[in-house]
Write a structure and sequence with these properties.
- The longest helix is centred in the last third of the chain and has 17 residues.
- This protein folds into three domains: 159 residues, FAD/NAD(P)-binding domain; 145 residues, Polyamine Oxidase, Chain A, domain 2 (Alpha-Beta Complex), CATH 3.90.660; 92 residues, no CATH class.
- It has 14 helices and 22 strands.
- Helices cover 32% and strands 20% of the residues.
- It is α/β, with parallel strands linked by helices.
- The strands form six sheets. A seven-stranded mixed beta sheet has the order 7-6-17-18-19-16-20, with helices on both faces.
- Bound molecules: flavin-adenine dinucleotide.
- Flavin-adenine dinucleotide binds next to helix 1, strand 10, strand 16 and helix 14.
């Protein structure tokens, strides 16, 4: 049995099937992919928008393996000049070594605050040790020390000013409250130089897995109970026809812990604690399709590339995914929001798209009359995800990481939250491969 048809569950089911296992996948929604979700409605000329997973770097070996295996094509994002809107000032990314036009920097941060950010991140990464050690972070004292911090508190301990942090968030998203050890390990293993995404939409990857698995996936089937004895696992689920129970030799639980909390289980000890305590990070995207790529004529100079405008406003970052669209004339931009920005956006309720439209017009001059289509998603509102990705508090990673990964009897745990590549498809897929090996070895 595999619970959840996100990429973690799909990878496990696909590999177990190929090893001759008789696999059934239970999925609560009517589609595969979970947090890989591509919106196509509401756009003209074949426009599409990634509501969840978007970028694939050349370092994402697990994702790329299946992209190649299923014969999917990748499209690189274009590059270009980025603007900022911070402290109410709008300016282009200053050349390296040139002072940023912002107030409140601390000693030594100007004239090259970007280098100062890299120094801080680099000093944290140096404390991580070997993140691939099975006992990590518990096996590395300096990583355990880092686990006591959020990224922001670690930066502040090295003297980072609020301005430096806000400038960093304008570039990378409001990630200051992430566990420093978790986010720096993720940064160290995940980032590359060439972001790409799948031609026509990233959901082609889960749909390719789903096609290979065929009727083994039962959609609209919500898992409600997991129990086990020495011989088997029993899974209770409900679908449109009622409640059912299936017995299996082994089970892969690839449900995010937020919806898993609603499932009746008899897990104990740190496993039960981790399921109860893992938080999910607020994240939201609000897309607008545009009549033209008007930012190429921005008053500051031509803008372009995926990172169009970095801001300290609720809009977070304005990203540009026009290079992924079939029609070269129309544009596609999005406001990508983390943490308090995503919460504030959600707080506007039905007025939120209108509010964002007004904000975008302020951040990108010339957008008035340009916005012709919209799609948006607030991940903390999705009952099957509970948020963008697993989010550990300071002091939690050292005990929670092994607790999240370890099997409990005949139940094996997969999902991005069990991986080093938190918040990436690569992590979900790697975890699906890991549990396959666990089951083969059992
Ligand atoms: C905003 C955002 C941006 C991202 N950006 C990127 C990116 O740029 N690049 C990248 O590689 N990754 C990115 N990711 C991360 C990536 O999407 C995830 O890491 C990955 O898709 C998670 O896969 P998963 O299988 O672990 O979980 P999920 O995809 O969440 O799958 C879990 C499945 O379980 C199902 N389920 C839940 N409860 C039940 C139940 N009770 N019964 C049955 N089924 C249930 C859900 O419906 C879902 O299908 C992003 C994610 C988000 C949200």
């Amino acid at each position: 049995m595999v619970l959840g048809a996100g990429l973690a569950g799909l990878t496990a089911a696909y590999n177990l099937m190929r090893h001759g296992y008789d696999v059934i996948v239970l999925e609560a929604q009517n589609r595969p992919g979970g947090r890989v979700q591509t919106a196509r409605e509401g756009f003209v000329r074949g426009g599409h928008a990634e509501l969840g997973a978007i970028r694939i770097f050349e370092t994402h070996e697990h994702t790329l393996k299946y992209v190649n295996e299923f014969g999917l094509q990748l499209v690189p994002y274009d590059t270009g000049q980025r603007a900022y809107f911070i402290q109410g000032k709008r300016f282009l990314h200053p050349p390296q070594g040139t002072a940023w036009p912002l107030d409140g920097f601390g000693p030594g941060e100007q004239p090259d605050p970007v280098t100062r950010i890299f120094e801080i991140l680099g000093s944290g990464i140096a404390k991580l040790g070997n993140v691939f050690d099975p006992g990590w972070p518990g096996s590395v004292p300096s990583a355990v020390e880092l686990d006591q911090h959020t990224l922001a508190s670690y930066g502040r301990s090295l003297g980072a000013s609020n301005t430096l942090l806000e400038m960093f968030y304008a570039q990378e998203g409001r990630c200051g409250e992430w566990n420093a050890a978790a986010v720096l390990a993720m940064e160290a293993v995940s980032f590359g130089s060439t972001p790409q995404s799948i031609k026509g939409g990233n959901d082609k990857l889960p749909y390719a897995f789903a096609a290979a698995l065929g009727k083994r996936i039962k959609y609209n089937s919500e898992v409600i109970r997991i129990s086990q004895d020495e011989r088997s696992v029993r899974i209770g689920y409900r679908d449109r026809s009622g409640r059912h129970e299936i017995r299996a030799d082994r089970c892969v639980c690839a449900l995010p812990f937020a919806p898993l909390r609603r499932v009746s289980t008899d897990f104990t000890g740190t496993k039960a604690d981790a399921i109860a305590k893992l938080r999910y990070f607020p994240a939201a995207r609000c897309y607008f399709q545009t009549r033209s790529r008007f930012w190429e004529k921005d008053p500051l100079g031509p803008l372009g590339g995926v990172n169009l405008v970095g801001t300290d406003t609720m809009a977070g970052r304005i990203w540009n995914t026009s290079s992924q669209q079939a029609d070269p004339r129309f544009g596609m931009i999005q406001s990508y929001m983390f943490d308090t920005d995503a919460l504030a956006y959600a707080g506007y309720g039905r007025r939120r798209v209108g509010r964002m439209r007004t904000m975008v017009e302020n951040l990108l001059p010339g957008s008035s009359g340009q916005l012709i289509g919209c799609a948006e998603k607030v991940w903390q509102e999705d009952p099957w995800a509970g948020g963008g990705w697993g989010w550990t508090r300071p002091g939690e990673l050292t005990w929670m990481r092994p607790a999240m990964m370890q099997p409990a009897g005949r139940v094996h745990f997969a999902g991005e939250h069990t991986s080093l590549w938190i918040a990436w498809m690569n992590g979900a897929i790697e975890s699906g491969e890991r549990v396959t090996q666990e089951i083969l070895a059992a």
